[in-house]
Amino acid sequence: NMDTVFEQLPHAYDTVLTEGGDSLSGGQKKRVALIRALLAESDVYVFDEPTAGLDRRNADLFWQRISKLGKNAIVIVVTHLREETRYADRVLEFREGRLSEREKPFEW
After folding, report:
1. Residue ranges making up the domain that contains 72
2. Who's near 33: CB < 8 A, 6+ residues apart?
């Protein structure tokens, strides 16, 4: 969901962003980082609070893209947002410093 942002840059998709992406908002920087990670086409992805700071629409787009990675990719997500565990195959939960495994994501 960054096409309109990229198209408005001086050289569209060919624009070189400065270190730190000063010309982008915080949410746009986050989305660019997620796009870059997903374009890397890895077998293992690790995300720490990937949807923090994103609006619901962009968070949903992120999870849709993650779901298309297939069963051959390992995706590890650290989140405090319990509702996002609905996308998980397995949830590891820390409570009072102890790790407990849940077979299924939280029900909502």
Report:
1. 3-102
2. none
- Alpha-carbon gap, residue 94 to 27, rounded angstroms: 28
Q: How far is CA 51 from the centre of its chain?
A: 5
What's the pLDDT tens digit per position in 25-72? 777 888 888 888 988 889 999 999 999 888 888 899 899 889 888 788
**37 Cβ partners below 8 Å, 6+ apart?**
45, 47
What does pTM read for this prediction? 0.75
Query: What CATH number has the domain bearing residue 41?
Result: 3.40.50.300
Question: CA 3 from chain center: how many Å?
Answer: 17
81 C-beta neighbours (distance < 10 Å), count: 12
